[in-house]
Design goal:
globular; ATP-binding; Molybdenum_import_ModC; Rossmann fold; single chain; 364 residues; 6-stranded mixed beta sheet; 9 helices; membrane; alpha+beta; 2 domains; transport; OB fold (Dihydrolipoamide Acetyltransferase, E2P); disordered C terminus; 23% helix; ABC transporter family protein
Amino acid sequence: MTRAVTGLYLRAVVEERGVDVEFEVAPGEVLAVIGPNGAGKSTALHVVAGLIRPDAGQVRLGARVLTDTAAGTHVPTHDRRVGLLLQDPLLFPHLSVAANVAFSPRSSRAAATRWLAEVEAAELAERRPRQLSGGQAQRVALARALAAEPQVLLLDEPMAGLDVAAAAAIRTLLRRVLARDGRCAVLVTHDLVDVLTLADRVLVLESGRVAECGPAAAVLAGPRSGFAARFAGVNLVRGVATAAGVLTTDWGQQWHGTADGEPAVGRPAVAVFPPAAVAVYRERPHGSPRNTVAVTIAGLDAHGSTVRLRGADQPDGAPGLAADITAEAAAELRPAPGERVFFTVKAQEVRLLPGPDSGERQVS
């Protein structure tokens, strides 16, 4: 069944939790919200759902105003047309699966039957929640959320407690339902696979503020915040553009690279490069690599035939640089935590991007 699509707007200040966030989700779009624990991700969802009243702000779903602190508007949760799917399915233990799905005032037994079939759980209709596996329970929870005919779906790490196969199945279901029905959705996740398979855009929250927001592919390929860089598995160095193709850090280290987005001289910039582009030496090398930095090894991790060397945090507190080398190279180098080595990166492997201004609140 095709429905009219509706967009979402959120502006919320929750002083007790240090949250000051604003974003929009276009009709039919999936926005992934990522960030460290305590950054305000779930708080933002709960404001949209009406579970938290912000100190200041507004929530709009299409033309409907759900929250407006200035006007004193606060639509109750059950009247918002918002579906909320959590890590815990929160099924009523005394009800059958079918009765759980039909529980919403907007649902019915017929709708429950249809949605259970949609999520490939029709055969579970007469079971009780205690008879379900984790993946089955989450399918039922998704059917219950959709049977209420929500205009926006809020997903708060719904795959986090599932095994790999069950999580993959839920992602497939979500992708199919969201693409077909055109609902907008907000997905809070710590899983890169969720972003890669479901999200159109990514918003990064750090300390209750929007650190960056953009198309999923662009954010993952060229992150401009520390968390996004860790999430995407790339190295990130912050500084200021001091010349064309040159970034200088606060501690005087220069990075040469290829300018992307033309970071203006004198403005914040970031250097981004993959761990696989880093070569590691015991002594400072001479010759072609233009970017060479001394790094104190903080740890090592083995992934198959690759060993990742992790450096100590950078002087500005940003995560330490990482280098991926072969097991053979690691055996020859014999690196150990606490030792100093040199990381080198060719300039053509480094992307220089405009960085967010310090303290700037970015709005999507």
